[in-house]
Amino acid sequence: MKEIKNINRYIDHTLLKADATPDDIKKLCDEARKYNFYSVCVNSCNVELAAAQLENSPVKVACVVGFPLGAVETSAKAYEADTACAKGADEIDMVMNIGAMKAGDYEAVLDDMATVASMVYDNDAILKVILETCLLSDAEIVKACKLAVEAQVDFVKTSTGFSTGGATVADVRLMRQAVGDQCKIKASGGIHDYATAAALIEAGADRIGASASIAIVTGAPAK
Fold first, then answer.
1. Active site includes 184?
2. Which of 134, 159, 4, 142 is nearest to 68 (CA)?
3. Catalytic residues (predicted)?
């Protein structure tokens, strides 16, 4: 395995637990500053605090939307994204309508992505769409990637980290084949060490979402 230079700059340092306190978010931001991670990724209620903590820092603020199920109205996702951007989010990680995807209602899936994309781009932010690959067949992953490209999203993302599985090398390779150079890929879920992160980057991931970010960059055991 080749060495990944500056792997810290691939990482969205993530804290999405329901019991995360303001002090936990401050600690997350302090760690992100120390290790110069690409961003922190937080729930929408914590965006304003994270943005304040990271002011005058190169570290970005990412926010999840429609998380973790994706099973909310498109208008609610768009509103949450707009509000998060207004409070300081630079990037939005939106969960796809997984049920519509499984049902083959591709029009609904595309509309969901495109509507949120329009709102995000009006705010000069970045949009990632979480597919939750562990719940999809290979054919569904490919189709979801094609719809994401059609919706002109910036990234497709493997997982929420809250379902039955996380990122795999096989899924990232499949996603890369599906999107080519038309879209970037974020791998997330179950990434606890450098070797796993590096393998996913080699497979085609442009970004890594992890809560074990410090372990990834230092080699220390994940907490």
1. no
2. 159
3. 93, 157, 186
From residue 187, alpha-carbon distances to 11, 33, 132 in Å are 10, 22, 11
Active site residue 17: no
* Catalytically annotated residue among 93, 112, 154, 171: 93
What does the block give as tokens for 211? 């809560």
**Count of domains observed in the chain:** 1
82 included as an active-site residue: no
Domain with residue 32: its CATH number is 3.20.20.70
Helix 194-203 with 169-179: angle, nearest 10 deg = 30
Distance CA 105, CA 107 (A): 6
Sign of the torsion angle spanned by Cα atoms 136, 141, 147, 152: positive
Distance CA 51, CA 39 (A): 11
Q: Which domain holds residue 166?
A: 9-218
Catalytic residue among 60, 87, 157, 184: 157
Q: Which residues contact 148 (CB under 8 A, 6 or more apart)?
A: 113, 129, 131, 156, 179, 183
pLDDT tens for 156-202 read 999 999 999 999 999 999 999 999 999 999 999 999 999 999 999 99
**pLDDT class of 222 with cuts at 50, 70, 90:** low
- pTM for this one? 0.97
**Catalytic, out of 60, 128, 184, 186:** 186
